Amino acid sequence: MKLFSFWRSLATYRVRIALNLKDIVPDEVVDINLLKGQQREATFRAVNPMMAIPALVDGEGPALFESLAIIEYLDEIHPSPPLLPPDARGRARARGLAQIVACDSHPLLVPRVREYLEHELKLDEQTRMAWCRHWITEALAAIESHLKTEKETGRYCHGDAVTVADICLVSQAAGAKFFQVDVAPFPTVNRIVDACQAIDAFARAHPLKQPGAPATG
After folding, report:
1. What are the backbone angles phi and psi of residue 41, rounded to the nearest 5°?
2. All domains of the chain, ordered by start, with CATH?
3. Which one of 18, 56, 65, 155 counts the least CB within 10 Å of its CB?
């Protein structure tokens, strides 16, 4: 198994958490430095034409791509511990919470979007940061509303077992810190993030604990 990764990639952070929870260690981790534009090089474009990470090669066939798809693949081939609830409605809720992060918020923050805002729309750094903070905050506010009002919330996003929703929420919290977003207005989010970060599989996956990360955030 080969994982294409970068320390700062929040999407890859999600996959690292899932791998750790499943006790899967990739045979090889290939660093794709997003800050240097390595995702646009021909060798990686052949792996993922979207020029995004993570990508996962497992055996024969093309690479798997998109963090949620990779996580569900890992959950299917290594079903213990499960990362989705056992019931259909629970699975839909967990996926919905996960997708607020992975589909609605995070795609608006990735390097290719920030580069477009800078080079094509000529937005200055202060405006670009305001853009990122806005979409991070919108997602956190929506998730907080779900978590604090819905009876399905437990120790974690859905009940008392970790799901894909928690994996995505923790990545959103890391993004909030990267972009200096105030998370104080989201106490339920903070409680669940703290509970997850106390788990070794989450702690070891943190971006700042990866090769190439700076000594401080």
Report:
1. -70, 150
2. 2-81 (3.40.30.10), 88-205 (1.20.1050.10)
3. 155
